[in-house]
Amino acid sequence: MKKSVLKLALASAVCAAFFMGCAKKESASGPSVAVFVPGIMADSPTYANFAAGVQDGIDEYNSKISDEKMKAKIHIMEAGTNQAEWATQLTALVANGTYDVIISSNPSLPEMAAELTKQFTNQKFLMMDGALEGNKNIACVSYDQKEQTYLCGYISGLMSKSHKVAVVAAQEYPVMNNVLYPYYALGAADAFPGTTCDFRIVGNWYDASKGSEITDALISQGVDVILPICGGASQGVLASAVEHGIYLTYIDENSYAKAAGTVIASVATKQRFAAKETVTNFLNGKTEWGKTRYVGITDGYIEYIQDDPIYKESVPEEIRNKMSELIDEIVSGKKVLPSPSAK
């Protein structure tokens, strides 16, 4: 979503929310947490784990509170896959006026939340899987997506026969343009010098038909390994990949079972663990507002899944050994990922 469009959508949403009225939070009550799921949990293990992690933190906190009125409350809202509606729904949630903090998880959400803090100056936001610095109302946790996409790119470079790989993204945003795509391309080129990386945009997070159409076009141009980062649209990427016999890599969750033999890498985030920790820090007054906390493989928040039987069956032992060595070097600090601009 372009910035001007985002501002217009938020302005309209604020006006609509004004007429809804703002409820007051009871003064003698425990903390109230709203979980804004930018998707549908039943369709996304990543978002399901995110919401479950917040619930874990709430439950643990409440187990130590004897007064029922002072226990934390949680409200979970599924916003669906149409990103054009997220601004209105998030604004309505803020305008409700009853939530001490709203927690969400998507790289595009911090910017949206930042716009809202200009209108709702007391609202606090916790953002997972995103980054933003300097806004006193927002705290973020960002997985080291350099590591995630570099590892996906590296195995893509090793497995590609055409030496042509690609990223299929839902949309452009700073993390996508500056981290996800360039580090995937970097990993592929480091694995096999001369490997090229294409970059295509679906335009939303749900259009599987468009995802399939883009993948068909990439395959016709010789691309044989793809990293999809496009939400529900990745179902179309997957269908085309299976049909044409090319490979996919995934970030965020263990995806080998999506298509054995097609998915050759899964670099999973410990979303449930991180969400629990994040909401627990908030409930205990330990949140560092205005900052982004970056976590990665060394911290235990990211895992390149190597023990799945499907991975072992799908990827040759020689390549699996190379990936294992690379991961050990990153964890030990022997391997420091360079800037893509240095290539």
If you compute it from the alpha carbons, what radius of gyration comes out, rounded to the nearest whole angstrom?
Answer: 21 Å
Q: Element order, helices and strands? A: HEHEHEHEEHEHEHEHEEHEEHH
The order of strands across the largest sheet is 2-1-3-4-5-11
Which overall shape is indicated by the principal axes computed on the Cα atoms? globular
- Give the class from helix and strand content and strand pairing: alpha/beta
How much helical structure, as a percent, in the residues? 40-55%
Q: What amount of the residues lies in strands?
A: 15-25%
* Total number of helices: 11
Mean pLDDT: 91
Query: Could you give the distance between the termini?
Result: 29 Å
Kindly state the number of beta strands. 12
Which ranges are low-confidence, i.e. pLDDT below 50, for 5 or more consecutive residues? Answer: 16-23
Largest sheet: 6 strands, parallel
Folded structure, characterized:
- With 343 residues, this protein is α/β, with parallel strands linked by helices.
- It contains eleven helices and twelve strands.
- The chain has helices at 3-18, 45-62, 86-95, 109-119, 145-159, 174-191, 208-220, 234-244, 271-283, 309-314, 317-332, and strands at 32-37, 73-78, 101-105, 124-128, 138-143, 164-169, 196-201, 225-229, 247-252, 263-269, 292-295, 302-304.
- The strands form two sheets. It has a six-stranded parallel sheet with strand order 2-1-3-4-5-11, sandwiched between helices.
- Helix 4 (109-119) links the parallel strand 3 (101-105) and strand 4.
- Helix 5 packs antiparallel against helix 11.
- Mean pLDDT is 91; it is low at 16-23.
